[in-house]
Amino acid sequence: MADVNMHLLSSNTALNGITFKEKTCTIGANTTVTQIAENRKLQTLFPKLNQFLKLVSSEQIRNMGTLGGNFVNASPIGDMSIFFLGLNASITIIDTDKNERTLAFSAFHLDYKKYDLAANEIIKNIAFPIPSSNTFFNFEKVSKRTHLDIASVNSAGRIALQDSTITDAHFATGGVAAVPKYLAKTNAFLIGKELTIATIHAAEAILQSEISPISDVRGTKAYKRLLAKQLFFAHFISLFPTQFQLQNLGTS
Fold this sequence. Notes:
- This protein has 252 residues and is α+β, with helices and mostly antiparallel strands.
- Helix content is 32%, strand content 27%.
- It is built from ten helices and eleven strands.
- Strands 1-2-7-3-4 form a five-stranded antiparallel sheet, with no helix packed on it. It has a four-stranded antiparallel sheet with strand order 8-9-10-11, sandwiched between helices. It has a two-stranded antiparallel ribbon with strand order 5-6.
- A hairpin with a 2-residue loop joins strand 1 and strand 2 (24-28).
């Protein structure tokens, strides 16, 4: 048997906990989806949190699987990767000498199953700006089964408004590229625009230019492009139901 030093991350208390400080929520890499779902403060910040997270895997995996493990699995359709990309999160990495570095989570995944993590490094935590009263967040997922299934395409989005003008936007889509896809060009386009049907349609056209889905067992590339469009529109229908409906966005 090979002589290997084992490092059990589950016993590393520096990777635990959910904290709120100075308008930032920080979640340790050892945190499970269930712990996120059961956090009262997060439930207050995200009224649909349990509804969102019930779509993630099975109860057993939600109870045991950690955020850090989900991120380094590096799946292009990782639900929690898409969730935190939509929250405009940053990730803190620590090495064996306890040196830390922080980067935008959108820069963490480099290519298919490749990420910015050296052999002597682990993920310490992920942090995101606590939403203000004019900030809105939504998560959507389509899979062959509603529950207990891997997404065909998933999507998350965070948008901030001043009156009817978009002041901040962070949308992400999974299952449409080699990595969980942060839609940088789409987000940049939205900032400063009026929240209108025309703006949403123009943004969706840019979204289509940013993604490059492939056909696989979860659907053809044409089907995934359609799902990416539908889920992008679904964010606005869910967040602003009096302003946008299925009919006037023309999602068919």
